[in-house]
Every structure is written in C-alpha cells, then in structure tokens.
Amino acid sequence: MQRRLVLSAAVASSASLIGCASPQVGDYASQTPTLDLAQYFNGTVDAHGMFQDRSGRIVKRFTVVMDCQWQGNQGVLDEAFSYSDGTTGRRIWRLTRHADGRITGTADDVVGEAVGHTAGNTFRWKYTLQLPVDDKVYEVQFDDWMVLIDERVMLNRATMTKFGLRLGEVTLSFTKR
After folding, report:
1. Could you give the dihedral angle defined by the CA atoms of residues 1, 18, 141 and 139, in that order, rounded to the nearest 10 degrees?
2. Which residues pair with 46 in a beta bridge?
3. How far apart are CA 173 and CA 155, in angstroms?
4. What stretch of H or E contains 119?
5. If DSSP codes are grouped into helix, strand and coil, which group holds residue 114?
6. Which residues contact 101 (CB under 8 A, 6 or more apart)?
7. What span, in angstroms and rounded, lies between the C-alpha atoms of 48 and 83?
8. Quick one: pLDDT at residue 21?
C-alpha cells in the first residue's frame, strides 16, 4: 500500500513538473511577423502535410486546398483534403475571434469547441477530433502549434493523443496564394 502511494506521488510530481516546463503561446509574444489569423486565412491557402505515428513512421501524406473567408470576427475555413491513398475528405471550420484574444471554432467532426490563442507569430489551439479508422471512430485530442514564418508561409505541428498517450504527430506547411 505504501509503495503504491509513493509511486502515485512520484507520477503526480513528474506530471506537474512536465506541465510547468511546457511552452506557452505567450512565450512567443515578441516574435514577428505578427500573426493575424483573419488576415492569413483569407483567400486561398494550400497545405502539404503528413501524419507520423508514435514511432516516427510516416503513415499518410496529404494536401489541402483551403477556401478561407472572414466577415468581422467570424471566419469560415473550407478545407478539401486529398490523401496519398487516393481518398478525399472535407472539413469546414467556423471560427470566432473574441475580444479577449481567444479564437474558438467548430466543425462537424470536432467534439465540442476548439479553443486557441495567438501571441506574436504563433497560434496554439486544442480540440477533440472524431477520427475514423477502419470501421470505428475514435475521439482523439489535438494540440496544434502554428508559426507564421513570413507573409505567405506558416508551419503547423500537431500532437495527437488519446487518454494522455501520444499517438503521433501531424506536420503541415501552409502557403498563402
């Protein structure tokens, strides 16, 4: 019993230390160029990406053509996916920019609401996605970090987890037309 308590305390301490060491979006507040999501995601944006499993093996490659439009604080990102296995997909994000700096978003395959913040050249947002695999649908969590490189190019790295366990990463390169 005592051994179990010591082990639980050690795990809890490690988890809290790891949480403290994690980067925060505010860490990038002084970085330029400054990212304005409504400006960047307005018009057509092309993306090229890949999914790597937890071992680093590339499982799937894909391209995305995004038709993006904003009116005031409301944005729509219509994403058309083409995957390396010949399949296609579509996701339509409906975004809201709030006065406190938050960005929230919904899509048909997103559970609840995605929530994010921008600071400097960086945007971070988290959400739960319904991911179809074979005949099942899994709810997986995404932690997306987008970094504006210049006025046309933005890089995105997303970590995918389930029950707190890392499943893999998505890497994307966005290019604004």
Report:
1. -10
2. 65, 175
3. 5
4. strand 110-119
5. strand
6. 117, 118
7. 10
8. 77
156 φ, ψ (degrees, to nearest 5) = -135, 130
Look at residues 6, 22, 36 and name the one whose alpha carbon lies nearest to residue 121. 36
State pTM to two decimals.
Answer: 0.86
Cα within 13 Å of Cα(170), Cβ side: 20
Interval 88-99: pLDDT, tens = 999 999 999 999
* Dihedrals phi, psi of 150, to nearest 5 degrees: -150, -170
* Rg of the chain taking only CA atoms, in angstroms: 18
Query: CB neighbours (10 Å) of residue 125?
Result: 22
User: Do residues 147 and 155 lie in contact, with contact meaning Cβ atoms separated by under 8 Å?
Assistant: yes
Neighbouring CB atoms inside 10 A of 38's CB total 17
Can you give the length of the chain in residues?
177
